[in-house]
Amino acid sequence: MDSSNLQQPGIFAGLVAIIRRDLLLAWKRPGDVLNPLFFFAMVCTLFPLAVGPSAEQLTFSGPGVLWVAALLSTLLSLNSLFMSDYEDGSLDQMLVSPQPLPVLALGKTIAHWIISGLPLVLISPLLAMTYRMPTAVMGILMLTLLLGTIALSLLGSIGAALTVGLHRGTALLSLLILPLAMPILLLGANTVSLAAGNDVYGTGIWALGAYAIASISLAPYATAAALRISNE
Amino acid sequence: MTAKLSAKNLTLIRGESCLFQGLEFALNPGELLLLDGPNGSGKTSLMRAIAGMLSLETGEIFWNDVPVDGQRQEFHGSLVWLAHRTGLKGDLTLVENLRFEGSLRRQANTDPEVIYERLGITRLKRLALRSLSAGQQRRVALARMLMANVPLWLMDEPFTNLDREGRQLVMDLTQEHLARGGMSVMAAHQDVELDSPIVRVHL
Predict the structure, then answer these.
(1) Do B95 and B125 contact (CB within 8 A), yes or no?
(2) In degrees rounded to 5, what are phi and psi of residue B95?
(3) Nearest-CA distance from B44 to chain A in Å?
(4) Which ipTM was obtained for this model?
(5) How does pLDDT run across A61-92, given as a tens digit for each residue?
(6) Which residues of B touch A99 (CB under 8 A)?
(7) pLDDT the model gives residue B39
């Protein structure tokens, strides 16, 4: 080979490249992005219609409903995380890429979160109004959802990687992820409930933050290992 | 370039059948490793094993006489894999696809336009890959291979979907790569005629 080689691109370049590619793909197929968001919005708006307009009841059930809807909508979107890459062979190319696989897996998960987690956090105050949530509590709701969706996306990426080789892995993915996702749901919903009841809520936020940080540092390695196993 | 690819005592069992046993080969710069055999004889599996995506029952692959397992990242930085499925995104254009690949791998100094021209894909640059024919998509995958500046080409059935001129082009490109001191592993049904030494493995 000629000696005028350019350098092997660094890890950060690879991370940015895969995030940019996935965002570009989402931009070209907005339907896939909007589906989970519609689901979230629909569950949250239909619930008050079904249980009736009693203010007390809505304030009481609001945090729980919003959080359950957020969890399910994230699970719904996770299924497709590695699916198209598996089908068109990009996943194989990722496996033989000189970039470390955990970095690529993290990049894909970050892109997934920007596409499905972040919009959910951003529209949550709008939906929280339906439940007569005070403005101060909305801030807490957004903060818990922010930390919670980050952790959920990362945990979900492990499940998505494990089930990518199976056809119709949807149910299995949910079964795999739900036990790990339970603490996030409980912490998230309870923290918002406590905040709404003017109680001390700080602990829940710290715990969610810890959960998110643990996921960021560990999940990419687990996802990479799972991808290698399911592609043998 | 001192890179050398070799394998010792490879055995692969898939399900209940043994695809190959005690397989060995050694490949030096400028040589082509040609895998042939009937469908389902394990050509793709062997190639996946060389790429480190498949764990073998026994045996090891060596790169520069060092087991690949211990230097996976470095080894992957020295190869490019032209797989059966192109691994390109149908929703993106040719340029968008190749730009992404370029951020993952060391790139050759060649002007991309020259490569597009040679492969006859210049006028397809603005189209989404989905709208191209299978043969045209394969040419884009070839462009990715040419743009990567790596010594080892893994080519799984590179002639699939290509017209006669395209098949000749693959031969020419391989010949040039070998003449530069590169190496290639190719699984093919069709007869390959090159001026370079060919190491044959029959599966």
Answers:
(1) yes
(2) -65, -40
(3) 12
(4) 0.89
(5) 889 999 999 999 998 888 888 988 998 889 99
(6) 104
(7) 85
CATH fold for the domain made of B5-202:
Rossmann fold (3.40.50)
Give per-residue pLDDT as tens, A123-146: 999 999 888 888 989 999 999 999
Confidence category of residue A3, pLDDT binned at 50, 70, 90: very low
Q: Do B81 and A228 touch (CB under 8 A)?
A: no
Per-residue pLDDT of A96-127, as tens digits, reads: 998 999 999 999 999 999 999 999 999 999 99
Determine, yes or no, domain membership for A46.
yes
B51–A96: do the CB atoms touch at under 8 Å? yes
Count of structural domains, chain A: 1
Question: Does any domain span residue A4?
Answer: no
Interface of A with B (CB under 8 A): 1-2, 4-9, 13-14, 16-18, 20-21, 24-25, 28-29, 84, 87-93, 95-100, 228, 231-232
Answer yes or no: is A180 within a domain: yes
Asked if the Cβ–Cβ distance from A95 to B54 is below 8 Å, we say no
Provide the domain limits for residue A45. 11-230
The verdict on residue A195 lying in a domain is: yes
Partners of A10 on chain B (C-beta within 8 Å) are none
* Eight-state DSSP code of residue A5: P
Q: How far is CA B26 from CA A61, A151, B7, B175, in A?
A: 68, 47, 6, 19
Ramachandran quadrant class, B59 (left: phi over 0; alpha: psi -120 to 50; beta: rest)? left
